């Protein structure tokens, strides 16, 4: 049983590190962008443009924040 729980915990840690990684704000921005895209799509608004904008903006913010810390 302990081996099973160890596997489950390792699986959860892997996905946390893979999705969240070093910067949780990027993961939060992508989640908000996906939710916004879903809401726009549900209201019959063309929403393909939202995620590329979110990705470009959050990448710039993340790079600026990282370089400012050096």
Structure description:
The protein is mostly helical and 70 residues long. 80% of the residues lie in helices and 0% in strands. The protein has three helices and no strands. The protein starts with a helix and ends with a helix.
Strand content: under 5%
* Strand count: 0
Taken together, the total number of domains comes to 1
User: What does the radius of gyration come to?
Assistant: 17 Å
User: So how many helices?
Assistant: 3
Poorly predicted tracts of residues: none
Shape: flat
The helix-strand sequence is HHH
Note the main sheet. none
Distance between the termini: 46 Å
Mean pLDDT: 91
Helix content: over 70%
Class per helix and strand makeup: mainly alpha
């Amino acid at each position: 049983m302990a081996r099973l729980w160890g596997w489950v915990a390792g699986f959860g840690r892997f996905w946390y590190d893979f999705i969240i990684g070093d910067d949780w704000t990027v993961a939060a921005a992508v989640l908000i962008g996906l939710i916004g895209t879903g809401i726009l799509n549900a209201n019959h608004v063309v929403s393909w443009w939202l995620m590329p904008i979110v990705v470009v903006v959050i990448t710039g913010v993340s790079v600026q924040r990282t370089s400012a810390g050096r």
